[in-house]
From TrEMBL, chains A, B, C, D:
Gene expressing this chain: glsA
Native source organism of the sequence: Marinobacter lipolyticus SM19
Biological process annotations from GO: glutamate biosynthetic process; L-glutamine catabolic process
Family: Belongs to the glutaminase family.
Keyword Hydrolase attributed: yes
InterPro entries linked to this entry: Beta-lactam/transpept-like, Glutaminase
Protein name from the UniProt record: Glutaminase
Keyword rRNA-binding applies: no
Lineage: Bacteria, Pseudomonadati, Pseudomonadota, Gammaproteobacteria, Pseudomonadales
UniProt binding sites for substrate: 77, 127, 171, 178, 202, 254, 272
Pfam families: Glutaminase
Keywords, alphabetical: Acetylation, Hydrolase
Residues in coiled coil: none
EC number(s) on file: 3.5.1.2
Molecular functions (GO terms): glutaminase activity
Amino acid sequence: MSSRPGTSSLTDGTEDIQAWLEDIHQQARTRLGQGHVASYIPALSTQDANRFGIAICTNDGRVYTAGDAREPFSVQSISKVFLLTLSLRAFGNALWERVGLNPSGMPFNSLAQLEAERGKPRNPFINAGAIVVADSLVSAFATPVQVIQDAARRLSGNASILIDRDVLASEWKHRSRNAAMAYLTKAFGNINNEVDDVLYAYFACCSLSMNCVDLAVALNYLAAEGYSRKTDEQFVEAELARRINSLLFTSGMYDAAGEFAYRVGLPAKSGVGGGIVAIVPGQFSVCAWSPALDDNGNSVVAQYALELMSDRL
Amino acid sequence: MSSRPGTSSLTDGTEDIQAWLEDIHQQARTRLGQGHVASYIPALSTQDANRFGIAICTNDGRVYTAGDAREPFSVQSISKVFLLTLSLRAFGNALWERVGLNPSGMPFNSLAQLEAERGKPRNPFINAGAIVVADSLVSAFATPVQVIQDAARRLSGNASILIDRDVLASEWKHRSRNAAMAYLTKAFGNINNEVDDVLYAYFACCSLSMNCVDLAVALNYLAAEGYSRKTDEQFVEAELARRINSLLFTSGMYDAAGEFAYRVGLPAKSGVGGGIVAIVPGQFSVCAWSPALDDNGNSVVAQYALELMSDRL
Amino acid sequence: MSSRPGTSSLTDGTEDIQAWLEDIHQQARTRLGQGHVASYIPALSTQDANRFGIAICTNDGRVYTAGDAREPFSVQSISKVFLLTLSLRAFGNALWERVGLNPSGMPFNSLAQLEAERGKPRNPFINAGAIVVADSLVSAFATPVQVIQDAARRLSGNASILIDRDVLASEWKHRSRNAAMAYLTKAFGNINNEVDDVLYAYFACCSLSMNCVDLAVALNYLAAEGYSRKTDEQFVEAELARRINSLLFTSGMYDAAGEFAYRVGLPAKSGVGGGIVAIVPGQFSVCAWSPALDDNGNSVVAQYALELMSDRL
Amino acid sequence: MSSRPGTSSLTDGTEDIQAWLEDIHQQARTRLGQGHVASYIPALSTQDANRFGIAICTNDGRVYTAGDAREPFSVQSISKVFLLTLSLRAFGNALWERVGLNPSGMPFNSLAQLEAERGKPRNPFINAGAIVVADSLVSAFATPVQVIQDAARRLSGNASILIDRDVLASEWKHRSRNAAMAYLTKAFGNINNEVDDVLYAYFACCSLSMNCVDLAVALNYLAAEGYSRKTDEQFVEAELARRINSLLFTSGMYDAAGEFAYRVGLPAKSGVGGGIVAIVPGQFSVCAWSPALDDNGNSVVAQYALELMSDRL
């Protein structure tokens, strides 16, 4: 939101940043023990609540880590950023005829609003919105899941990124609420493919297993005016990167986006796997991860780490 | 949201900025004729839809104007920024026990959400939230309306700012919906004073008559890390200014905050009088005004002017 | 709903009916101790939860009682039947342009539905509906409260019926939620008088103090095809009496109308003072009263007494 | 709702009743041309809007008809009465732990209320409620569709009643909204079988093709204290028949149950195929059918015929 003073420390030198990051990690880990690991699917509920990692990727390509930054976890809703970016690359502004841009003001899996607004989801970061985005990718690509997995691999530079088949099977088995949303959206004509195909693609992306470094590197294009250093391409235009950041700012943290914006003031996307990616435009991307969540579905410790980081920027 | 490149033009020199502003004004006025002047109270409906002014106040205190920048208009919901700032100065974070921080996802005058969330308004920029903030000021000050008017005068450096008594009378006469919100909030124990007293204070602030220059100057503290050049004081702490900007970003533009953030990417607050104040942190504050509104209650031409300005920053 | 077999006992003779009623009273009082006395206004909360009376008024004018049938209590929402009847006498079907006829499916004091349906209350037995009916009577009569009190006196044959001024003062003091409903309705143009005047009339009727005998006698016209034996007049036409009974059947028991219809199967109206009036068309009217309420606001013991009575009809 | 006077004509003699019915048919057909044939599935939209039949089945087993009373049509929601009766026979009051008894106050296919009330449908006559009832029958019977079809055949005495496979295929193809409801209910744990199996059973029953005579005869047990003359058995207990009638009275006519109760005053169930079955307890059952519907989904002409009939009872 601002050109903050005093961010020079991040460009001073490797040692300073590393120490700064470890200090944040040290302080944030005092909140381990708070919150609850996601239980809505069994495959997530077995995560160790005491894990906590954090990774930074600066716009000049350096990576700094603290804690469990290289342990893979389920990206869950963070994948909505990949879905959105790929759909905007394929369809441009035409996507916004099918999905809105405004905060929802409702829980991320609400059907009441979807019904009242006749199947046009409020934004691409609530479940219904991401399902519509997934539908667009099922239309655009013969193998949409492959396309998304490839994008995650190329943007992160980690060719071994996989979909966690246990998580995917668990998502599928417990798909009732997401299926309800997809069918309701289809009832209003806003899903073009078979619901089962769309849900499969959506769940597969949620089930990507990535670590903090992977995610910080892969989403660095949002900090770097759309440029991906890994693929050495303008992944999206600078203006579009800014716009996605605005959307993350207003709607990236489930129903607590406003509180997070007030406290932390950075564009960010969380997932119920415990990960949060945040963007400091022009400087760096960061991913923090710790499985225990607050009532809004956001990682307690990862949020606190980002709040500490924001305070010190 | 970002440290934008190419903003140096604003500090280059008076002539360049003035030409830049006039150019924006020239282009934006092509949308005069679109939208509709607010009709919910008669006193506003008589405004001339063809008026259009814009004023910038840079953080070093220079003011640039184009069009009808010195014609007074009814500030309406822009006053919610003054209300919030004064209440945060008086009560600090205790205010957030009574008002939320998250986007509403509902029209600004909705009762359904207020009822579902048991009288705690979603944020201080929807009507119910501003009424609770007004209630806090009625508790804090013997003459709350005087306090708010004085603040507007001192921050803008314009001692002749007045409450428009015709607008105030019209607001009062057509108070039914706001009265419903206030009584519902009181039913949940979140209004401490008499509803009539709170509504009077709330309407009086909405009825302040200010011009683009007044507003750009008065709210420049949000661009200048909390510092008011007019009163030469730290009006709010730098961190609090950043936080208010975050709130404006997520909830300042009625139910279109997300769209405005996506398109324009600046913290802003609109009023149904046709004014919009936007903040470019670290650089300047701006107020655009033109009475005709879109379906969300935001001025068509003022929004477009800010979008053009954002594109050129 | 049916031509029940075995109702002949009611016409057999005075002794049989009296014994039958006392037996029901004896069995129903085993549920004293369940439920909670209304606490939303202090003036009601002091009622003795152990009081329990029941009175029957047959269509040929005989009255039978058991327990505290002559102890006055606050009629509360039972007054909505008087309000409706008087308004239908004054306005006929024109009333239905302002109030609906369908069950609400929401709590009796909900604002969400009233907002969604643009100020047209679902039916005359939810608060918002009764407030609109009261508004019609404020328009129709110079002294509406006097008119209603007179009607209650004449129909019951008890000239000493009074408005309980303590209850009225308490209702007024705690009027916030009803005021919110009234103002919201007015915001949609469906209240024609000053909200304060309408609420006063509405609360005054709620505050009528009547006993079981009064109410059973006064509302006997609904059992007797519209004819009032006390005033010896066709108070409403037979068809209108049937229609009011249908409304009571579908909407008379707050949000539990369907359950009550399923279990008891009689048109009925309850009040939070603990009274319930029920109608056995063609035979008799009955009023049971005991202050402790279930979660829907209906008297536990009075409901049970009516259920027992229905089983034995 | 009442022991109506003047119903003796129905038992006087065959000729009188026949003339009376033809007279009603003659008058009601003046409204042919109003309303619109259901279009939500193609298989229904091709119905001829000018068809209109009516059939009465008296409790002593005589059948009277007028117009197209022997032309089969799609029973649609009228099948919910069969579903409910069969489930109550199988599960008794245990069913009411899964489905409510109160009017919905919302459109019959609403998801908002289902979500707010955590997957417990308001009553068995809204779609979500009937889907839960269907789920109970899928649990209870190896071949639930066969069981329901057999019941319809035996109760009506028409062994040639069939499921219309075109309608069933069309329902299945356009199942999105019902699928959304079923999945949402399952998400709350209130569907025990596979959603596809439950929907298939539900749609199969909706797709039963029956005529006015079939339906009047089959549902006569509700008029005859639970006794079916065709099968010569107490199909349900007398008390249960009364209770089902109460439910029909409060919730049988979609979101217009209150209006229908006020105007007509009979327990009734409508379907979007244009049929309406109504019950005159103790006397007869009646089925009217004409395809064109009003905005609530109830046949315009069939409703009017029942209103005329009620006026003349």
